Amino acid sequence: MNNIVADLHVHTTESDGTTDPSRIPTLARENDLDFIALTDHDTHHELEQPVVSRGGVNVISGIELRVELEEVGERVDLLGYGVTSTDKLDSVVNSVRNNRKKRAEEIVRRIEEETGAELDFEPTVSTGRPHIARAVEQNDQIPYDYGGAFDNLIGSDNYCYVSREIPSFERGVEVLKESTLCVSLAHPYRYSNVDEIVQIAERLDAIECNYLYSEGVETGDLPDNKAEEFDIGVTGGSDAHEPSSIGSCGLDQDETEAFLSRFGFQEYL
Q: Which of 15, 91, 246, 266 gets the highest tally of CB atoms within 10 A of its CB?
């Protein structure tokens, strides 16, 4: 890949990232990025417009929304770019975030029941399992590190796991189409039914072709081929949850210009 100038998939402390949103432009500039998108889980940042300039970096308001794809029996993530608040979006976001807190409270209750330890952690509407795993790691009474917390307590096959309540794929697409400039399918190779799930990109605006997958994940040309076949846009990003990952993946200059032009971002620059 040529030099990356846009990282369109970044998380902050507004969801399960570790970086304060105010630091993102500085980190982007240090990594020679021209554009960066804030795509926190189930929430968006209130910017004056879909893309704003901060310290010489163009910051795009985004969101990552998990939805239920019942036809395949799997949950997938949608990335929305250029967010403008609407009543429908706010309703969905508030519902999901309130459920996040309720779910986290139940997970904490189960961990304390399972381990006999008191977990000094107060869930909020932004709480995800990574927050809880960090709290477990810091608790001297529980013999698990961050990864061990998932493996032994809060992974999907464990007693302490609690499923989230999320909108349907149809509802998520409806809401994001109304409130954003672009809706993209996130990281297609992270799903179990890749061949089936990638087909839903035809109903979206774009697909995340550039992404750094975990070691052992076999990838090919499927997302790129589908972008061309469906005549949809290409997105890409680091999915950074830590500062060190920002800019590690994304779009090069040509891809960025195509993204901006295709989805109308240029009028805000």
A: 246
68 torsion bin: left (phi>0), alpha (psi -120 to 50), beta (else): beta
pTM: 0.92
Question: What is the distance between the alpha carbons of residues 9 and 184, in angstroms, rounded to a whole number?
Answer: 11
Give the tens place of pLDDT for each residue, 94-114. Answer: 999 999 999 999 999 999 999
**What does DSSP say about strands 182-185 and 4-10: parallel, antiparallel, or unpaired?**
unpaired
CATH number, position 31: 3.20.20.140
Strand 182-185 with 74-81, pairing: antiparallel
Alpha helices (runs of H) in 52-208, residue ranges in sequence order: 87-115, 129-137, 146-149, 169-179, 194-197
Q: Which of 154, 172, 200 is the last residue of a domain?
A: 154
Q: Judge whether 64 and 176 are in contact, CB under 8 Å.
A: no
DSSP string computed for 187-198: -GGGSS-HHHHG
Residues constituting the chain: 269
Residue type for position 35: F
Domain ranges, residue 104: 93-154
First-to-last C-alpha distance (Å) of the chain: 25
Per-residue pLDDT tens for 150-188?
999 999 999 999 999 999 999 999 999 999 999 999 999
Euclidean distance between CA atoms 269 and 263, whole angstroms: 13
How many H helices and E strands in the chain?
8, 9
What phi and psi values does residue 19 have, to the nearest 5 degrees? Answer: -105, 130
Cβ within 8 Å of residue 232, ≥6 positions away: 201, 202, 204, 205, 206, 207, 226
